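## retry 2 of 3
previous attempt timed out at serialization; input unchanged, resubmitting
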Amino acid sequence: MKKWMKYIKPYWPYFIIGPLCMIVEVIGEVLMPRLLATIINQGNDGTLTVGNSIWTCVLMIVIALVMMAGGIGGAYFGAKASVNFAADVRKDIYGKIQRFSFANIDRFSTGSLVTRVTNDVTQMQNFVNMLLRMALRSPGMLIGGLIMAISLKPSLATVFAVSIPLMLIVIGSIILLGFPRFQRMQTRIDGLNSTVQENITNVRVVKSFVREDFEESKFRRANRNLKEAGLSAMKVVIFMHPVMTFFMYATIIAVVWFGHGIVLDGGMPIGDLSAFVTYVNQILMSLMMITFLLMTSARALASARRIREVLDEEPDLTDDNAAFPQLEVQEGRVEFKNVSFRYYKHSTDKVLDDVNLTIEPRTTLGIIGSTGCGKTTLVSMISRLYDVDEGEVLVDGVNVKDYSLYNLREGVGMVLQKNVLFSGTISENLRWGDADASEEALLAAAKRAQADKFVQTFPEGYDTMLEKGGANVSGGQKQRLCIARALLKHPKILILDDSTSAVDTATEAQIRNAFANELADSTKIIIAQRISSVKDADRIVVMDEGRISGIGTHEELLAQNETYQEIYYSQMDKKE
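## retry succeeded, writing output
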């Protein structure tokens, strides 16, 4: 409960006023049957007068109006409290996810995280809203109804001693049966969300391989699993209503059966029996509302547990222990000292194995090697997308763990293998590099990245709207926009991870020339598959199976390094 109190405290007036308003409504509901019984009794024994009836009717109207005000107030403040509660929980979950490392995210599926931020929070919101409206109303109606029923005829009220315990036993059994089913249903929602997201994100691949039928089959399985889990959970809810109705009418029948004899014997006025039946209905309805509240709580508890898993997850990468949190990257000198890394802590296979490398500031380093040899992983250590298992990475002579994550990543610009653009205009996407960049700086960055020419061909230029993931531009155009975004950041260290693979060699040469002229004060690291992309670098690193097999200029490696020779001659043969 302590975990959720922080979301309740800012809105505690709503959490208090809402239930109190519902108590006002309960008082009215408890008084109404007694007033109606008075009119019936007076009419039956001949003592009813016009004045008495008018006075009682006016009092009932006033009570009804007060009840209406209480009901509206309870609904309003309950909604205010639950919506604000859910908004704050959702904000904290999203903020926590933003601080997750890749390893943290891998522990949850993307679809699961989406479900937790949306569906699970909604379940908790619905529960809080229902709780505020029913927490005092239902028990209040139950207690008030019992008091009034006992005051009318204590002997007749003994019916409740049988019906209520039986009802509670059945309700408890149903709730215990329903809880694991709701947990299973939320998990199946995760699976469906993951399937849909993966398909939509990779729709081009699906269509190019003509795998629509396969994806539809996969969706049908996920949808069928969710349907079955949903039906299994709903059966519990569906079964609940007829059971409650059975107990309600069985109790009413018992009251009428025993009560009519008491009325005929003169032991109870008929108006009181009518009120007693109304109180029976109120008592059992309040139990039904409590039951549905408990059923909602079963699903909300399942959602709360899943939300807690995200909120309690500790990010693998933090700067809590940073020795120099105010320090910024100044020169761009990078050192790898005895660096080793595994994606899985208990794995025996090292992605990087005892890597030692120094990159001097304001130089250009090329990295080349076969797919899967650890090139991308190596440069990911610089901005702490991953942390080393062994050794250390230094930037300007300071361990990257001693920088704040913000300052470290502000000093490093990365254009990753997977070029990602976001929904919005081209201009908005480029300003991810610098939100306050002027139009002149934005255009200059686009020109250096050779993106300005094709952007100017669009009718709306830099105001052209990009679809999700940049689906309405080509692969080469997407790469150039991502490069422009990184250039606009003016980083001290610029990392290009195979980021010109989709552009022609002439355009690539122009981009490299722009780097040499415009980013002379930056350290540039270029990962590539093509030797032509790195041959003009100050130094080239050749990687093989997580180790550095050679360092040197293009000419030195071509003369001395077998791995480099193999790559070079294989590419030359392809050209021929």
